[in-house]
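Students often ask why we bother predicting the structure of a whole assembly rather than each chain alone. The short answer is interfaces. A chain on its own may look different once its partners are present, and contacts between molecules only exist in the joint model. In this exercise we take two input lines together and write out one structure for the complete complex. Read the inputs first and try to guess which parts will touch.
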Amino acid sequence: MACFLVPTAEAVVTSLVTKAEEAKEQKAPARKREDSSIAVKIPFSRKLHWLNRLLAGGAVLLAFEHLWHGEVVPWFPFLTAASDLADTAVMLHEMSTVGVTMAVLVTAVWGVMCVVADSMARRENEAAELQTEGTAK
Amino acid sequence: MTLLITVFAAVISTAVWYKGMPKDEMKTGILCWLYWGASIMWFVDAIFEYGELHAAYFTPAPEDLLNDTFLGLAVVALGLIIWVVRLLVTDPKGVIRGALFHKDTKSAQHSRS
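Now the answer. The structure tokens for the assembled complex follow.
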């Protein structure tokens, strides 16, 4: 009924966090950014961008599905379920179950993506270290 | 059916994005985010629906199946429209700018080199 609103809300929050994180990373001293122990490191703001895109992309297509089924309308109150009290209760229940699960699963998938990307970066660093050691000898 | 069509679109767009990397001149990455995001969300929807309908979930009425197929195709079309609009607006290859200002993008690249 309006389950896409939960991932949409999360997308708004994460886009704000991304902006703050980007500003923080730009303010960080250059020496800290070029940490010698970590040659390749994926910035957290970049990872947050991935989450934003997953959430926003999915929410846009889901909003279209709700429009298709007549659950979202271009006039006030925009959600057909919001005009009736009983329907509103059903809608809120769906948002708290389906919507929250959607947001949680997308975040979990993103978490797995981050772990995989970090382990790939770590392997890249180890390979680079071995190469530099080899050339030094 | 909508979930199935979106998953196929996500897999195909990911393969296309992978082939085009690292240049990604066609900016196909956006399609991956759109279709994978929607696929995950519809997967959750499918789990909840399966919880209600059980085995009946896999034997939908022909009318519902047709409606879901149309919806799936419409969703793919919407994703493609979002992608092409973004591609034309960002214009990574300078084709639109070249057409607007009567510049030959190939000769411009030659003169630059």
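Check your guess against this: The first helix of chain A runs from residue 5 to 27.
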